[in-house]
């Protein structure tokens, strides 16, 4: 079992930056790929980024490519999402997820999810 808890969300200005964290527990986090998704108001789930077990490979969704960086610290069982040049359309609930690399590398639904953290970008 893997439990995920996001933090770091909040209110930021357009053009600002934010780093989201996701603390995982369960003892086998290092065997899972990790990723980030978001739900914007009135929109479907959107894939943002994923990272392989070792952290050597990263994938990004088109909407955040060039503005986001995913990283993981397996010693701390934590995955991060650094977001730069934030825009109002980035306003959403951001959730982290854990699962097989074969699914997270393409943003497909996986088995473990956090509760989400709200990010609001103001003008």
Can you characterise this structure?
- By secondary structure, the chain is mainly beta.
- The chain has one helix spanning 101-104, and strands spanning 3-7, 10-13, 18-25, 33-39, 45-51, 58-60, 68-73, 78-83, 92-99, 112-113, 117-122.
- The strands form two sheets. Strands 2, 4, 5, 6, 9, 10 and 11 form a seven-stranded mixed β-sheet that branches.
- A hairpin with a 6-residue loop joins strand 5 (45-51) and strand 6.
- The longest helix is centred in the C-terminal third of the chain and has 4 residues, at 101-104.
Provide the fold topology:
Blueprint: E1 3-7, E2 10-13, E3 18-25, E4 33-39, E5 45-51, E6 58-60, E7 68-73, E8 78-83, E9 92-99, H1 101-104, E10 112-113, E11 117-122
Q: What is the gist of this entry?
A:
The protein is mainly beta.
Number of helices in the DSSP assignment: 1
Distance between the termini: 40 Å
Helical proportion?
under 10%
| Main sheet overview | 7 strands, mixed
Compute the number of strand runs: 11
Order of helices and strands: EEEEEEEEEHEE
Which regions are unreliable across 5 or more consecutive residues at pLDDT < 50?
none
Write down the Rg.
13 Å
- Rough outline: globular
Strand content: over 45%
> What is the typical, i.e. mean, pLDDT?
94
Estimated structural class? mainly beta
């Amino acid at each position: 079992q893997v439990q995920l808890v996001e933090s770091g969300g909040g209110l930021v200005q357009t053009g600002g930056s934010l780093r989201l964290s996701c603390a995982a527990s369960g003892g086998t986090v290092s065997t899972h790929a990790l990723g980030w998704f978001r739900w914007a108001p009135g929109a479907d789930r959107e894939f943002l980024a994923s990272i392989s077990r070792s952290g050597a490979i990263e994938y990004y969704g088109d909407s955040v490519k060039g503005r986001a960086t995913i990283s993981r610290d397996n010693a701390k069982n934590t995955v991060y999402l650094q977001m730069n040049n934030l825009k109002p359309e980035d306003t959403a609930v951001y959730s982290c997820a854990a699962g097989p690399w074969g699914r997270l590398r393409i943003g497909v639904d996986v088995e473990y999810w956090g509760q989400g953290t709200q990010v609001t970008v103001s003008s």
